[in-house]
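queue> holo job accepted (magnesium ion)
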Amino acid sequence: MASGGFRNGTSKGTLKVERNVSVYSNVKSSSFKSKPAPSPSSHASGLRRNSSGSLGSPGAVKDDAGVPGRVRVAVRMRPQNAEELVADADFADCVELQPELKRLKLRKNNWDSDTYEFDEVLTEFASQKRVYEVVAKPVVESVLEGYNGTVMAYGQTGTGKTFTLGLLGEKDTASRGIMVRSMEDILADISPETDSVSVSYLQLYMETIQDLLDPANDNISIVEDPRAGDVSLPGATVVEIRNQKSFLELLRLGEAHRFAANTKLNTESSRSHAILMVNVKRSVIGREAAAFSSENGNASHLSKTIKPPVVRKGKLIVVDLAGSERIDKSGSEGHTLEEAKSINLSLSALGKCINALAENSSHVPVRDSKLTRLLRDSFGGTARTSLIVTIGPSPRHRGETSSTIMFGQRAMKVENMVKIKEEFDYKSLSRRLEIQLDKLIVEHERQQKAFEDEVERITIEAQNRISELERNYADALENERLKYQKEYMASIKKLEEQWIMDKQKHGNDKTGFEHKDECLDKTHSWEGPLVSVSEEVIELRQLLKNEIHSRKVAEEEVKNLESQLAQWKSSEASGNAELLKLHKLLEDEERQKGKLEEEITILRSQLLQLSFEAEETGRSLERDGPGKIFTGLDSLMAQVRHPPLKDSGHEQKASIAKLFEQVGMQKILSLLESEDADVRIHAVKVVANLAAEEANQEKIVEAGGLTSLLMLLRSSEDDMIRRVASGAIANLAMNETNQELIMAQGGISLLSMTAADAEDPQTLRMVAGAIANLCGNDKLQMTLRGEGGIKALLGMVRCGHPDVLAQVARGIANFAKCESRASTQGTKTGRSRLIDDGALHWIVQNANNEASPIRRHIELALCHLAQHEVNAKDMISGGALWELVRISRDCSREDIRTLAHRTMTSSPTFQAELRRLRIEC
Ligand code: ADP
Ligand code: MG
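queue> job finished
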């Protein structure tokens, strides 16, 4: 995937890269390679061959996984200090350096020593400049190219770690340490317009990271990006560095803070790790964009434009580790053992990690400490790492020196896979594209405007041309016209002249002729053609005149016709209006007719009922014969004592009338309240008989007979009395005025009570008859029903006697008739009270009763109910529609058949149901 050469040897060539968006990748520790410490020969090809002192492995082909880059390790020995000069004067040095062989000999005893190879062996005479150049400079150069880099010093306290890394060299520039020199090189290399350098400075002590640029910020957490394998400290202060001076100030500040912090923590700097982080962000647009397009030979302008600029982000970490000496003196520093463990935790974890990496172990305990987490890219990661181990010359510290050397040896076995940290800068590409887009939009708008202007200009030009042509054409036409006119006039003039000339000539030739002849001649001889022309002209003129005249006549005619048309139109309009009116009238008439027909239907049904009632009354009269007749007061009294066996008709009737005259109504009525039960019975019979005669009814009522009869119903226990009284009341109830009186005196309740108590069919027949009569009164409908009249009627069907049933049916038919009338008049709404009171079931059951009086009344009642759409649904569900169908087909009376048929066909609900049931009617 990646192509192009990796920097080789001393040449700091351009890196040609074509790669995916991100070159970061999470390299697992298990994939890290380690190899044995390089042999002197292989080692020789390392540092010595690079005059610039690069520790980098040259010539590797770049790919995404990076290239192998072993951790480079140099050893530096401090010169003897004043104390050692005295103290160690009698001792032989325990370390012998062979810098040219890059070897170090550690004396085991007087006759034996171990030899170790390093990437660089720096003697006590090595200058700070040289140390920087062999140890740090290659790393710094890598960082500038977009790699991560680490420079770390490891060694016993007092061996020169800080001397090597941190010296500012303010008094003696030659003593400047690695930090200062690194920044100098970085600042010299970057271009301030496109690149940036920023710095954080931290201290790690007892597993706590403290910001040396902001000491209050003393618990900074480490954030690891598992995808990119990157480690960052978002909480740390980041200071942008523009020049060396500001960097030195920053380091001074950091040192001061470090000193203060250590004083406060009651420790020494030797116990803490100091970490300087330098982030270098470089844009490679100028240098590398060329590489992109040249690789992509036919790259269009567009593809070049949308190629995002590449940024390289190199990070340099400089670590001044805590002293590597064992911390068994910790007690003197006032720390508990736990604290001591914590102080050393990071350092020992680092040692473990390096051991694991050196041994190519499958597990590297990177997560065991903050230091190893921070340095995960430095050892076994993608960074280019350079370690300097510092030792002192004193044989008294031989043990520490030895362990430091061993640490360095192990670190040399750690192989990193160095990888460039390069990514596309989409943000700046987006910015650039936006600007370009805006430019294009402006350009487009400008062109659009120019185009529109051009179109307008051409349009105006065309219009001008057209109008000019029109003008020219009109001018030419006018000229032509004038020319012809002129020519015409000229020729006329010429003709006239010629004519005059000819005339004169003629006059000269014919001198001596009569003037008349002359005229004649002029007309007929030499001027023949001219004469005919003028004749023609005259003729034509005449014709023209005629034409004009006839045209005028025609115009007149047209005008006439037009006015006639207008008249017709207006009359047509008025005719239409008239027609509309007539239509409306017709519609009204039709509506009226419909209504009338409806009314006729209802009236017919009422007539039917009346005729039926008349018939029945006739029949019943025939059957029952006249009432019980009494003869005279004497015989009345006799009757009271000896009830008559069998009386017969007319004779008795007449005698009752006589009796009535003789004793007076009052007297008879007073007998109704007699102590003697027999007297009471006979008296009531007398009154009943009298009540059967219409002529007597008024008198009976006037005398309070009705009230007395009602009283009897209420008070009497005697069945006979109640039956006869009911009969009398039934008779009186034929009259409308009496009906109202009965109702006013609570007659319905009394009759209902009687109906409920009585068993005797005759009594029930009378009571039912009375109620049936009341049912026929329009005014009493509501009260009657309200006081339980319908219920009482229906209650009486229990006795099953056809006479009683006939009266009940009559009452129902009467009630239905009145209700129907009220509905038609609009004084009643809603469904029938009969249905409300549950009469429908009985009606349907008895609609085909064998007894014709019952059947007829019910048939009529059904027809009344069916006339009102509100009842239709209940009637259907109650089975009444079947009865109506039956009646419309089978009823022996044609008028009832027709009525049933009509009521059915005029109801949409019935019609729908019949259609649903597929019944034709
Ligand atoms: P460390 O940081 O390892 O504890 P320092 O850098 O503080 O050690 O060094 C201890 C002392 O030794 C300091 O006084 C320092 O100036 C001196 N020193 C260390 N290395 C050298 C050297 N290479 N040349 C001269 N003096 C040195
Ligand atoms: Mg130090």
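queue> DSSP finds 34 helices and 17 strands in the chain.
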